[in-house]
Amino acid sequence: MKKKISIMIISICLIVSTFFLLQNLLTPKYISEVPEGSLIGEYYKEEKYDHNVVFIGDCEVYENFSPITLWQNYGIKSYIRGSAQQLIWQSYYLMEETLQYEKPDVIVFNVLSLKYDEPQNEAYNRLNLDGMKWSKSKWNSIQASMMEEESVIDYIFPLLRYHQRWSELTSEDFEYLFKEKPQLSHNGFLMRVDELGVDTIPEAQPLADYQFSDNCYKYLDKMVELCQDNGVQLVLIKAPSLYPAWYDQWDQQMQDYAKKNHIDYINFLDDIEKIGLDFQHDTYDAGLHLNLSGAEKLSNYFGQYLQDKYHIKDSRQDKEASVRWNKKVKFYNDMKEDQYQELKKYGYLKSYGATEK
Amino acid sequence: MKKLLIVLAAVFMLVGCSSDSGDKKDTSVNEEGFVFEVNGTAISMNEDTSSILEGLGKELSYYEAKSCAFEGMDKTYTYADFQLLTYPKDDKDYVNSVVLKSDTVATQEGVSIGDTKAKVEEKYGKDFEDKNGAYVYTKGKSKLEFIFTDDTVTSITYTAITK
Could you give the ipTM of this predicted complex? Predict the structure, then answer.
């Protein structure tokens, strides 16, 4: 009898271990390919949750703002909780989760995602949700995000989603089977030093309905309430990306909403000259996202605004914070140097997700 | 030991047979959706663009945007009278939408920018979704949208249904 029980226990342990081993192996690592998939998870590696400013939103935050510049020029400690095509309900639940870790002075939310009324794509959902630690916020975000064909069990056991990746496995999948993944972002900022200037921007398509949906407004209202309840200033922004189109009708709605709720809304598209952006040199993909030079200019401009308007404390004299942030600055400078060298050697950023030109 | 092997096999089967929620985007296609035809080139939604582009000749301008986090680019080809937008999948580009820009081109059923709402109803019927005054018709894996200003067509857009 004892022998049978022992065999059963060993069997169960073996099955469970095999399951989780396979899960670790087959789940994408998001390092060389689609590094955006690592962004949400990197937040949990922070040594200390004492950010003055937290950015939340889609690629228009994690590609366009540099927390290192905010630190170097203003002593502002910030973090970007951004992910690819992050939808507004995902942003709300990320905000809710972030407030469990810390209470920043300001939360900045990029409003482009209001254009999406419903879940768009299962693969983007995974980029936004897989990296979150399990919590009530993650659970609710999954429920709000799932496409018709998705199942919550696939989120609980990612192996069920990724079991077909056998043929796509790379050396990275084995290398990081047990090993911790390398840091890819700079407090959520995904650096790109290459340039691809704007030649032409496609004409914006007319829309039948420019009104943002009730569902989007519901989550925006929830954000306002959440920030008020936590004593955090919410700032709405539209990053200065030239494409996709940001319609005047959308802009007006945001202006009206901000006024009604006594919060700030900044459309950086109106401030391109003041920021000093040159779209021949400050973008790496013809106007969608800023490159490092553009992100540093925008961050410098916004940092001044944050300091003037919200009197964010300059922490550069704080010894502990300085030691911590100087490590981040070094990592940033090292990556910058590495990217320039790679650009010189290959003509494109081979190991940073760029495609050969 | 035998039992253990059976259980292990069961785990692998569970993993192997579970629902496939990955890479589901259906690009298989047209299933008799709306087709836009210009200069003898037929453009169906979700269709591989390689032969279409050859037929259309040189575009006036071209724009490509990184498909957010995925390998490949969303591309916009602008021609004199319309815009063709594509999306990437598996190293190929597929038709995402076609936007008509002038009254010198028409839908296969004969509606152009500048036509009346009554003509749209006559050609396409009344089985449409009313989207804030715009008419949206669905056929196969495609949608055709007419936007009006004072009962006159001001915009015509074909869109692929990719979900």
Answer: 0.72
| B24–A122 C-beta distance less than 8 A | yes
3-state secondary structure chain B: CHHHHHHHHHHHHHHHHCCCCCCCCCCCCCCCCCEEEECCEEEECCCECHHHHHHHCCCCEEEEEECCCCCCEEEEEECCCEEEEEEEECCEEEEEEEEECCCCCCCCCCCCCCCEHHHHHHHHCCCCEEECCEEEEEECCEEEEEEEECCEEEEEEEEECCC
Q: A170 touching B, CB under 8 A?
A: no
Work out the average pLDDT over A139-162: 93
Fold observed for domain A35-351: Rossmann fold (3.40.50)
Residue A161 C-alpha, separation from nearest chain B C-alpha, in angstroms:
6
Residue of B66, B86, B101, B146 to mutate when probing chain A, most A C-beta within 10 A: B66
Q: What is the pLDDT of residues A183-210, one digit of tens each?
A: 999 999 999 999 999 988 988 988 988 9
Cβ B21–A19 below 8 Å, yes or no? Answer: no
